[in-house]
């Protein structure tokens, strides 16, 4: 239908003269746009193809009657105005026309008044139809809006509400129409609406107003709404009423409350939070951010992000932010950066993890960014520590494996390079396998069962097994396993340490055989010497009680010889039983150890001095306390025995060891000092066995003993620590084959 001011009329009549006459009157009496047609079928085509406001048709036409044309128009065009203008009127025709939905019915008269009446009927029909269509369109729009809409008259009574209004209020439309606003508002909101309307109606007021009310539903619920209200167009000077659109703001209020709550949470959050505008200037920072950067909030707000990032990090940020532009799958990302914070002496770089999100306006345009920062200093330190531990495990000289007890058969989930070298298996071959892959025909099943029981009991275990390399070569494996517990206290893994002890075991067996021979030797010597010595000592005591019967000097010589034989027997026994010397080292006060050894030696008038010129005798030394004492006692006894009762013994530390020196007679001129450590050397210096014992104790500590002539002509013994002996306390084992 046309929206122009002048209606478009189709005038249909099979009589050409009457058709021409009618067109003339219609054009003369109105501003109508008139299209004439003598064929009803052609008229239908015009109606279908053009925007027609009204059809005026004769009744009696050969191809189709006016009523038949009307029926077709109604089927295709609904309520389009249709006036039957016929010269053959009858009650039957009028009845058929009314039944078919005719808009109006007029009989032709040969006078201008009849055409004036026709023009009037056309204008009224078109105006009413247009108004109806407009109302239908408005109502359709109002319904399509989805918002509750109401109209009240000048008395404040509802004259229109849409379905959305009825749904919101819980009342039926019929219940609302004709009632006052008190049906859905309390007195305070009724007064508020009246006041707002008064402001709109005032000469200086706005055309519309907005205010909040609470709509009272049929169930008694109060629904918060925003009322957009205006007034209806006046009819002359008469106020006709008001119209309004309601919007349920329950969600909006909830969002406002949520935003307020979120802002409170963000302000109180432990992590720094910020937002930037499109130019990367700070629009918001929470308390944690202010505390982090060490500046006042007013100084931060409005400042540029680049002021708080190193240049390289800001360039990285720009690149990452640009990657979130059009076509990106996401509008957020996480990256690591460094934040420049005030630390009192300059700018401190704090490693941070930033969770960045783009901010958009209602038109989906990017208006800035927001981010949450998290200090990752501790995490990076932990990662560095874990990386160091991983490298230490990877590069350890002992074989290390980790197994997963939560999986079937407790498979190996990690093996280091030393394990690969020890077993001949590559990591990709051994991962997923059980340690049984190393077992073979001669592996001790009882020891394996101990292993399995320890794992079942979640206990550490240490065993030695005969294992087999990938190529079938057997080797002795010292295995230790320890459970590793997770945060929940349950065993998460087992870590295993494997060290080849094939050579050590071979030496052990050799030493055992040597010690067996030495033990037999000791038993024989002890039996063969102690019995005659005991007898000789008995007779000597008898003779000594009657010195007149024997030469006293000879008897004293006999006594000294017997004492010497007994001393040699004691030293020989000590030497023989120390076929294997095992020491447990610990940090010892060297001076204190020397003093204790000196106290146990019969020194007569001998003097012990400490030399501090070469490192200080009070420094600690890594040694086995009992063995160090035995070594020093032998050296002190040797000095007193060969230097005399008034000998002076000097002891001190060197840069990598210690020395013991006396001012006695020293070593024989025809013999090298180094020979003093050999068993059986007893001329002037060395007891033959005492210094041999000293040599073995030194070897057990990884010390190298040397003998040389002292500055005062006496004997000087120097002990040099190896790199291993100078290290942290450890269990050391030495043997003399």
TrEMBL record:
GO molecular function: phosphorelay response regulator activity; phosphorelay sensor kinase activity; protein kinase activator activity
Record's keyword annotation contains Kinase: yes
Protein name: histidine kinase
PROSITE patterns: HIS_KIN, PAC, PAS, RESPONSE_REGULATORY
Residues carrying 4-aspartylphosphate: 58
Domain PAC span(s) in chain numbering: 333-388, 459-513
The entry's keywords: Kinase, Membrane, Phosphoprotein, Transferase
Domain PAS: 134-178, 258-327, 385-458
Cellular component GO terms held in the UniProt record: membrane
Domain Response regulatory: 8-123
InterPro entries from the UniProt entry: BphY/WalK/GraS-like, CheY-like_superfamily, HATPase_C_sf, HATPase_dom, His_kinase_dom, HisK_dim/P_dom, HisK_dim/P_sf, PAC
Chain ranges of the Histidine kinase domain: 524-725
The keyword Phosphoprotein belongs to this UniProt entry's keyword annotation: yes
Class of the enzyme per the UniProt entry, highest EC level: transferase
GO biological process, any: regulation of DNA-templated transcription
Catalysed conversion reaction: ATP + protein L-histidine = ADP + protein N-phospho-L-histidine
This enzyme's EC code(s): 2.7.13.3
